[in-house]
Amino acid sequence: MLAPSVPLIEAAQAYRILHVFRAPVGGLFRHVVDLTRLQAAAGHQVGIVCDASTGGERAEAALSALAPHLALGVTRVPMRRNPHPSDAAALLAVARRARSVAADVLHGHGAKGGAYARLCHVPGGAPTIRAYTPHGGSYNYRPGTAMHRLYMAAEGLLARRTDVFLFESEYVARRHSAYVGSEAALARIVHNGIGATEFEPVEPAADPFDLVYVGELRDAKGLPVLLQALAQLRAEGRRLRLLMVGSGPDAESLAGQVRDLGLTESVAFEPAQPIRPVLARGRIMVVPSFAESLPYVVLEAAAAAQPLVATDVGGIPEIFGAAASDLVPPRDASALKAAIARVLDEEPESRRARFAALSASVRLRFSMERMGADVLSGYAAAFRARRREGALAEASGTAAPVQVRTGL
């Protein structure tokens, strides 16, 4: 969550942008924070609408630090992760806030934020464009399951109210094309980006853990498989230790699995905290996820040239680029164990060179400033399309001209 090192491109006219999302935690929140700073630096007015009940003290601190960049403020209302009758009240709150600040852009993030941003009705004033960044979300359900079919049907309906899709990875864009198939709206791939300071070397801590995991404590993150791989490595005589940093709904069951596998003395749990100090405390970062979009933890670890073992899922191959063959299949404890062992046994100079090359590749391809500029470009394209539609409707006499108050 870094401020841009240089101002983003100057805006010909300033937008009034509301970012709408559920939980102020994790990579999605980091993405919104970075965009907010970039957009404010470029002269736009930005606000946030998010859940009132998640994130705890860490979210409060992050939102307070962001306040100087939020000309349109922060609105927090109760939002549930899954569909719930309370969604009607949250939807009304988003609409009221959008109208009160005369929002030009409603940018929804994640499945819930995307639904609110695209469904809410904003009566009066100038037309508002609706942008959507999925961050994986509903696209990560396994194809063929009932939940996948349900959410893809919902995405198909919501696509009709989307002015521009800003997919954070090629993986999610492909999923949308395959399972939703909407061609009506504009679509851009805008990779998550990171700042220059995140490429600075991390000074190793004294007596580091052998392995470190950073992220949500959920089974879907592949953590049971990681624990099985650790048990296998220890059974081979490797006395490894694992640090798991984060929180989540499966924390208690994971602690039980640690006990059942006899790993109590080998695994430490700590609450969520900034990633770079955690990287310094581990020799190898492990990302064993079953599904991802374009995870910031992988970008951040790769940028810092941290030795890294990750699964071949979602947009992670996009981050690894030419090194994608180093990724391991998900849900396979033996393959994960073998990949960790290979990195541990690699000659130190060769290991340093390999991950330095990955860092250099990420630096070229995942710029925070490019991310910010591409998002604004997507908004501008949506405004141009809206003006063209209005001009065509006026020329044909089928509708009143569309008055778009701002745009590039």
From TrEMBL:
MF term (GO), any: glycosyltransferase activity
CDD domains: GT4_PimA-like
Ranges for domain Glycosyltransferase subfamily 4-like N-terminal: 25-194
Keyword annotations from UniProtKB, A to Z: Transferase
The UniProt record lists the keyword Aminoacyl-tRNA synthetase: no
PANTHER family tied to this protein: BLL3647 PROTEIN, GLYCOSYLTRANSFERASE
Protein name, entry field: Transferase
Classification lineage: Bacteria, Pseudomonadati, Pseudomonadota, Alphaproteobacteria, Hyphomicrobiales
